Amino acid sequence: MTELLTKQAFFEKVFNFEENKEWKFNGEIPCIIDFYADWCGPCKSLAPVLEVLGEEYKGKVNIYKVDTEAEQELSGAFGIRSIPSMLFVPMEGQPQMAQGALPKQELERIISEVLSVEK
User: Fold this and answer.
1) Cα angle at 112 between 59 and 115, to 5 degrees?
2) Catalytic one of 33, 40, 80, 114
3) Segment 39-95, tens digit of pLDDT
4) Rounded CA gap, 5 and 48, in Å?
5) Is 31 annotated as catalytic?
6) How far, in Å, CA of 23 to CA of 34, rounded?
7) Do residues 74 and 12 make contact, with C-beta atoms less than 8 angstroms apart?
C-alpha cells in the first residue's frame, strides 16, 4: 500500500532537510519514495507495480508517493528534473535515486541490493 506524503509528513517519516544538513533517516523500516505527477503517463504505469510491491513487502518496506505538482519544495530539495523518479532509502547509508518507470523485476533487485530487504 502506498501513502501520499506532504512536506510535513516527509519530515516526520523520512528526513527533515530544514533541520538537518547531514542525511538522517527518520523511518523505522526502509522506504521507496515515488516522485510523480497525475498527468505523467509513465507514472501512471508505475503506480500499480508499486501497489503490488507494497503488498509483497508489507511490514518490510514502506512505499510513499510525493506529488511533484503539490510538493514543489520537496521535489526541488531532491533535484527532481524528470518523473517518475524514485528515491530508495535504506536503514543505513545514503539513499539512491533511480529515474524512469522501472520494471517490477528491476525494482525487486534494487530493493534487495540497496535496501537489503528480501521478500
Assistant:
1) 65
2) 40
3) 999 999 999 999 999 999 999 999 999 999 999 999 999 999 999 999 999 999 999
4) 18
5) no
6) 18
7) no
Helix H or strand E encompassing 3: strand 2-4
SS3 of residue 67 by DSSP: strand
Helix (H, G, I), strand (E, B) or coil at 98: strand
Catalytic residue among 31, 33, 43, 107: 43
43 labelled catalytic: yes
Q: Hey, how many other C-beta atoms are within 10 angstroms of the C-beta on 37?
A: 16
Distances (CA, A) of 12 to 25, 49, 71, 86: 10, 26, 15, 19
CA distance 56 to 39: 27
Whether residue 110 is predicted with pLDDT greater than 90 in this model: the reply is: yes
C-alpha cell at 78: 531532491
Domains in the chain (CATH in brackets) are 2-113 (3.40.30.10)
* Closest-CA residue to 34 (of 49, 17, 19): 49
Identify the residue whose cell numbers are 503506480: 47
